[in-house]
Amino acid sequence: MLEGLRTAAAGMKAQQFKLDAVSNDLANANTTGYKRLRVGFSDLLYEQGGRPTISNEAQLGTGSRAVQGGRTFEQGNLQRTEKPTDVALQGPGFMKVKLSDGRDALTRDGNFQIDANRRLVTSSGGFVTPTITIPEGVDESEISIGRDGQVLAKGQAVGRIQLVNVRSPQNLESVGENAFVTTARSGNAVAAPATTVLEQGALEGSNTDMAQAMTDMIEAQRTYQLTSKAIQTADQMMEVANGVKR
Q1: Which of 62, 123, 164, 210 has its CA 20 to 30 A from that of 114?
Q2: CA-wise closest residue to 203 among 92, 110, 106, 93
Q3: Which residues form the Flagellar basal body rod protein N-terminal domain (predicted)?
Q4: What's phi and psi for 207, nearest 5 deg?
């Protein structure tokens, strides 16, 4: 029965992890360029049943654990803003940016602005790399961003938003600020495929599926409750066994 308690406790912890992931998805349902988390489960080690079983070959499971499989990089819906410095990615890939702490990163959040130094920056204070500087006297309405990322100010080329991709996006590391950094498992950033383009005056919405997220939340909650009930039942059985011994 002690094994049953440990097994149930492991299952509850796994379901709690899934609930946390679903809660994070729901909280970011309106976050530009957000990609929902992928959570799966795997069983833990098995042990020989021992004396309570008929055969030594009988095995008892020790529960489950949650496995985060990265993120689902499905395309989010495009939302028109008509703001010249807003861009939305269509197709696989990312835009290269430098975070406010100096790290190189990738993002699909194209909510760009012009800072006091006339640089094209992210909403969290990072900036596009290579740096794109808008000349003095150029109004936002005079900025044009092509589908290939080229930025024009009054018809003059001032830089290009770099479109890149990685071998395994699911293995990118999330670092906040709607950004990711590459890892050894994700591979380095390389040029995005030709099918990846930018749409000026639009932003890519979150790909969180509200209906699916609510279904996952209810499923995890019910499983958590049932596992909790198993712990209560095992505890009652142990109480009965202890009473028999007395």
Answers
A1: 164
A2: 110
A3: 5-35
A4: -100, 20
pLDDT at 170 over 80: yes
Q: Is the separation of the CB atoms in 231 and 8 below 8 Å?
A: yes
**How high is the pLDDT of residue 5?**
62
Instruction: Please check whether residue 151 is in contact with residue 160, taking contact to mean a CB–CB distance below 8 angstroms.
Output: yes
Q: Find the helix packing angle between 210-245 and 2-27, rounded to 10°.
A: 160
Confidence band (pLDDT; 50, 70, 90) for 45? Answer: low
